[in-house]
Amino acid sequence: MKIKFLFILLSLFLAVSVALAASYKVITQEAVIRKDKRFFAPMVTRIPYGELIEELERQGDWLRVSYKGQDGWLHISAVQEQKFRLSSLAGDRAQESTKEEVALAGKGFTPDVEKAFRNKNPNMRYDLVNQVQNFKIGESQLLDFLRAGNLREPGGAQ
Predict the structure, then answer these.
(1) Which of 14, 20, 56, 131 is positioned for an S-S bond with 64, CB 3.0–4.6 A?
(2) Contact yes or no for 138/128 (Cβ under 8 A)
(3) For residue range 89-123, what is the model confidence (pLDDT) as tens digits?
(4) How far apart are CA 141 and CA 113, in angstroms?
(5) The CATH fold of domain 21-91
(6) Residue range(s) of every CATH 2.30.30.40 domain in the chain
(7) Nearest one of 96, 101, 55, 109 to 78, comparing CA atoms
(8) 0.70 cut: is pTM over it?
């Protein structure tokens, strides 16, 4: 009897702890964990789109998270909180998004959407769009630009 009661109590504790832990899904192409609560603080690591992460702490719009053993700060705009629903355990299906809705939410194109857009706009220079998408600026170049222009970082911790 004691073992059964202990098992029920442990199961209840586990369910409550899972429900209380905030879980987030990365909704940007990649999210960057930083050493401090600033957009241009030194980078700790990158998290790819779709990864799930757990919140360790929250301060304003910044989450302290851990990903593959590396801790740091992530802005809330890069993630979406995942809701835990008991109905999902009972077999009910959650409402799912279409590919088109996900593409629009991510401000991107699926191959089908892009093909339809190309058919409607045959004279558009897609090579230039690809060139812009592939243009990368390193962290140090960005920080040099901010310093040279005497620009201040928005929304970061002071």
Answers:
(1) 56
(2) no
(3) 445 554 555 555 555 555 556 677 778 888 988 88
(4) 34
(5) SH3 type barrels. (2.30.30)
(6) 21-91
(7) 55
(8) no
Low-confidence ranges of the chain (pLDDT < 50): 16-19, 86-90, 94, 156-158
Contact predicate 105/95, CB 8 Å: no
Question: Rounded to an integer, what distance in angstroms lies between the CA atom of residue 86 and that of residue 44?
Answer: 35
Helix intervals (H) in the chain:
2-20, 86-89, 99-105, 111-120, 126-134, 139-148
* Alpha carbon distances (Å) from 133 to 1, 29, 103, 109, 129: 63, 12, 16, 12, 6
**How far apart are the C-alpha atoms of 55 and 48, rounded to whole Å?**
16
Residues in contact with 63: Cβ distance below 8 Å, sequence separation at least 6, in sequence order:
24, 55, 56, 57, 73, 74, 75, 76, 79
- Enter the DSSP assignment of 45: E
Number of Cβ within a 10 Å radius of residue 55: 17
Tokens of 137: 């600026």
- Distance in angstroms (rounded) separating the CA atoms of residues 125 and 63: 40
Instruction: Pull the structure tokens for residue 25.
Output: 């899904």
